[in-house]
């Protein structure tokens, strides 16, 4: 397939908008995912104003929502027949469609590696695409790859690896990384790269200047683009309110919801201005949990109204058009009535994130190899439950083949409807088209 450069694709999208729809609104730095509006300018971004939270009817917590419940798709209207993405989908096999819903570590393509080796930060990571890995990719044509510190040694090797991955599939893969700034920065914290470094998001937030946060996003986005990345699993949109929390801390911009919202929104806008897809995380909020979802299920005991008045402000106060949202392995029993992780909960995703908050973009799980999921679910069951709940992208399942094949079988036997599958495939391909890596 032909692949456009990011700058060419974004310029084309903007020209189409100006011709068809008049001048764009300056309220957002993100491209529209639906293809009916294009990019809004970000040369002089302003943080989105944070309104007072609206009164919200009390939600019932009596019903228990199992992750295996039948899905009720809530997407926008079905694509028109003239839509290039929809036409391209008509040419795709079932496995090609299912593949677009998976984002994996590159190590998962190495048939010689065990799940433990793949998901461990202590083992040596793959840094080049071998013939054996290409064969696995042909059988499991995933939609994205997430690079970790163990996959990065020096600039030249990373450039070569990202180019190999970019050209390895018919539909180019998203190439993502955790580059938050501060403690979590796979490239900047590698001395071989000599990149700008940030003390922490909290330090940027303490400045009180959203322009500083936007500059942070713009700076990070610029060097990520230079190395071939198209997705950043940032900004952290959590509000750090629980001193017992050991996983968020200075990764959050603030302990104040409105400051966190302004800073996260500005940082995301900076990333998007460089053609990098920002991923707000970790919905429904990881800043008030005592547990680390890497090690087990995290739990927030807040009610719906309490979440809406704090943890959800970074999502409700910013225009998330064209961005993605990562849903964490965080149970909210006083909202859902049970301990289902949010990443597998249709109540959290469909009723609140998509319904109440109106988010129509990409929904991504946190890593499905984390103990918050693997302690209770197999790779296959977790992947199926996430898709049924409304997730578009299953991030890094513990065992790729098990999760992928389980979803294929679920579509074949009707556990996951073809309509539900197509909903997410369409959205993934739209985003790839919008961010300039796919031209159907």
Characterization of this structure:
The strands form 3 sheets. An 8-stranded parallel beta sheet has the order 11-9-7-6-3-2-1-12. It is of the alpha/beta class and 440 residues long. Mean pLDDT is 85; it is low at 1-82. It is built from 17 helices and 12 strands.
Q: Which structural category do the helix and sheet elements fall into?
A: alpha/beta
> Would you report the number of β strands?
12
- Unreliable spans: 1-82
Helix content: 25-40%
Average predicted confidence as pLDDT: 85
Largest sheet: 8 strands, parallel
Task: Tell me the Rg in angstroms.
Answer: 20 Å
The side-by-side strand order for the widest beta sheet comes to 11-9-7-6-3-2-1-12
- Note the run of SSEs as H and E: HHHEHHEHEEEHHEHEEHHEEHHEHHEHH
- The proportion of strand residues reads 5-15%
User: How far apart lie the N and C ends?
Assistant: 7 Å
Give the number of helices. Answer: 17
* CA-based shape: globular
């Amino acid at each position: 397939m032909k692949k456009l450069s990011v700058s060419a694709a974004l310029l084309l999208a903007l020209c189409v908008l100006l011709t068809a729809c008049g001048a764009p609104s300056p309220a957002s730095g993100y491209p529209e995912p639906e293809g009916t509006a294009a990019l809004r300018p970000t040369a002089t971004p302003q943080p989105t104003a944070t309104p007072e939270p609206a009164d919200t009817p009390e939600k019932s917590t009596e019903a228990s929502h199992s992750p295996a419940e039948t899905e009720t798709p809530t997407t926008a209207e079905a694509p028109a027949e003239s839509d290039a993405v929809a036409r391209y989908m008509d040419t795709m096999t079932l496995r090609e469609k299912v593949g677009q819903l998976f984002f994996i570590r590159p190590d998962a393509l190495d048939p010689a590696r065990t799940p433990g080796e793949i998901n461990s930060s202590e083992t040596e990571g793959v840094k080049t695409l071998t013939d054996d890995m290409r064969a696995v990719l042909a059988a499991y044509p995933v939609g994205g790859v997430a690079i970790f510190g163990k996959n990065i040694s020096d600039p030249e090797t990373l450039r070569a690896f990202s180019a190999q991955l970019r050209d390895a599939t018919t539909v180019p893969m998203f190439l993502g990384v955790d580059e938050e700034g501060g403690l979590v920065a796979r490239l900047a914290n590698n001395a071989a790269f000599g990149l700008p470094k940030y003390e922490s998001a909290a330090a940027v937030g303490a400045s009180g200047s959203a322009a500083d946060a936007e500059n942070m996003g713009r700076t990070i986005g610029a060097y990520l683009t230079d190395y071939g990345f198209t997705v950043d699993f940032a900004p952290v949109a959590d509000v750090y309110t629980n001193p017992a929390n050991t996983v968020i801390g200075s990764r959050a911009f603030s302990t104040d919801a409105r400051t966190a919202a302004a800073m996260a929104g500005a940082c995301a806008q900076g990333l998007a201005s460089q053609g990098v897809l920002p991923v707000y995380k970790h919905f429904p909020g990881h800043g008030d949990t005592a547990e680390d979802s890497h090690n087990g299920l995290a739990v927030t005991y807040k009610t719906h109204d309490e979440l809406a008045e704090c943890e959800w402000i970074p999502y409700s106060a910013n225009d998330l058009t064209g961005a993605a949202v990562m849903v964490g392995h965080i149970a909210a029993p006083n909202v859902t009535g049970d301990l289902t992780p949010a990443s597998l909960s249709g109540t959290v995703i469909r009723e609140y994130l998509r319904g109440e908050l109106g988010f129509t973009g990409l929904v991504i799980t946190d890593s499905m190899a984390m103990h918050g999921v693997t302690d209770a679910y197999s790779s296959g069951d977790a992947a199926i439950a996430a898709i049924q709940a409304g997730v578009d992208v299953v991030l890094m399942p513990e065992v790729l083949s098990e999760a992928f094949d389980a979803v294929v079988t679920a579509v074949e036997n009707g556990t996951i409807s073809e309509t539900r599958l197509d909903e997410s495939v369409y959205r993934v391909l739209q985003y790839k088209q919008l961010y300039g890596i796919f031209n159907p």
